[in-house]
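Sequence in, structure out.
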Amino acid sequence: MVSHRENADESEIDTPGYLRLEGVSGRAWISDLRPAASLGLLLLDSESWVSLRVDETAARTTTGPLTLTDDQVRRTAEFGFTVARTLASG
């Protein structure tokens, strides 16, 4: 699931259960319930934010259940920043 909101600032983002995600190009928070459940990312880029949620228990790959590594989580966050920038640019 992906959602997007324009004209947001960090003070508006209520993040219970989320911790800052380091090692990405923007401001990001993560709710990491892997491997038992889901992964949530809140990404704030400029004045837009994107929320991404991945349910590892429901997602399947060609080799079995989805299991995201920390590197894949960071790359997913970078993808979310790209989405936010694209949507903000119209």
